[in-house]
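Handout, section B. The chain below has 504 residues.
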Amino acid sequence: MEAERMGHALGSRAALLEMSPEEFRECGHLLVEAIADYLAGIRSRRVTPGESVEEIRKLIAAHRKMPEKGSPAGELLEQAAALILNHSLLNGHPRFLGYITSSAAPIGALADLLASAVNPNVGAWNLSPVASEIEAQTVRWIASLLGYPVNCGGLLVSGGNVANYVCFLAARASKAGWDVRKEGMAASGAVPLCVYASKETHTWIQKAADLCGIGTDAIRWVPSDGEQRLSLEHLRRQVEEDLSLGKRPFLVVGTAGTVSTGAVDPLPEIAEFCRERSLWFHVDGAYGAVAAQVPGAPPSLAGLAQADSVAVDPHKWLYSPLEAGCALVRDSAQLRDTFSYHPPYYRFDEDKVNYFDYGLQNSRGFRALKVWLILQQAGRAGILKMVGDDISLSKTMYRLIAAHPELEGLTQNLSITTFRYVPLDLRARLGSEEVETYLNQLNQELQAAVEQSGEAFLSNAIIDGRYALRACIVNFRTSPADVETLPGLVAGIGRRTDSRLRGL
């Protein structure tokens, strides 16, 4: 009663950011209608609007000052929807075949709305009871999908860079040979640490080596074989050489699906090598790990089940909206031993999952909800089928490209195909320095022309010095018709680009 009397006496606070239930419903309905229309018509849109920096800045009046007074929420949401839906690169478009970013499942967008409405801080269990348990279950489900032990430690993070970095730090804490968390890299008796990775490894490893203090010179870039896979023979030689120099090898990184070509390192053999030498074996599976149990996937993927840690990106090939990465560590105690600190102002039960003990963040958003719902909506069989369909479409694309007289197929791994346009009159001189130089220029400009057309979006790769077009399918909206259309589309734009460059 006393609290009620005080409330009447003080009155209600008028907060400009509050919305009445009626206003929230009205704004929400209008926004959902706009998004639904966008999704219904996504195939008919340009993949990218192709607008310049100046045009985009003009759209948002980039140089205006922050408004002194506020505006109605409905007006702001209507303006924002028009900007975002009409002036963005559409990675959910069926012909977005560029970077490894999924077409996002619509249920993920609704999940983000729900998560933001409640706004749990998934750093401590007491602050987010159900969210913490959903994240723990999501981690177990992801592990099972990969064939990784479900009793591992793990957590959701922003993406592949941070997932790999979390695992890198766990490896350093476990294998350094001294208390690196307390004494740092300049401890008495410390020896130089060395990490080994293929030259095809993503640049996250340079950031990790830099940020954790061992420096990028500690990375041993192991040569690849003819299929862009880490060479075991070169790995053995490099480790032995470092040991002979008094250095301490501690980590070997295997890649489950390289960024450029989708190549999978010989993971079972790397696992065996690491066991023999007591090295931490980490798999960067940000892209390809989810294909580990898909029928017809590269057998080497099964080796990730033997890794000490694995990084995987649900927003790459589990069709989750950004941001969603996942770090898995076989022994959860090693993850906790890497990150846990308990200052006196932390008074949380240690028998519950408090995620500030397992990663870089203290305050954490509810990333797991969208992944949890996607995994349930599709089910295990559905996820594996969609991933398998993407792989099958990529193989079909490669066959069509290889059969086209003006295209040259270069590689096909997982769901990535690389190729280039070669004018008919230059085929007889392939390999000559003059022709190869010109083809690199031609295909670079062809990539830009395809993007500018709005008909498709491709990225690039460099394959043995050749500038290649790269098509990556992690897109449940891509159909056989899209794949069948692409070779002719690229060849047509290629002919026009060649004619322009050579003045034909």
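Note. Residues 120-365 form a domain with the Aspartate Aminotransferase; domain 2 fold (CATH 3.40.640.10). Compare this with the example in section A.
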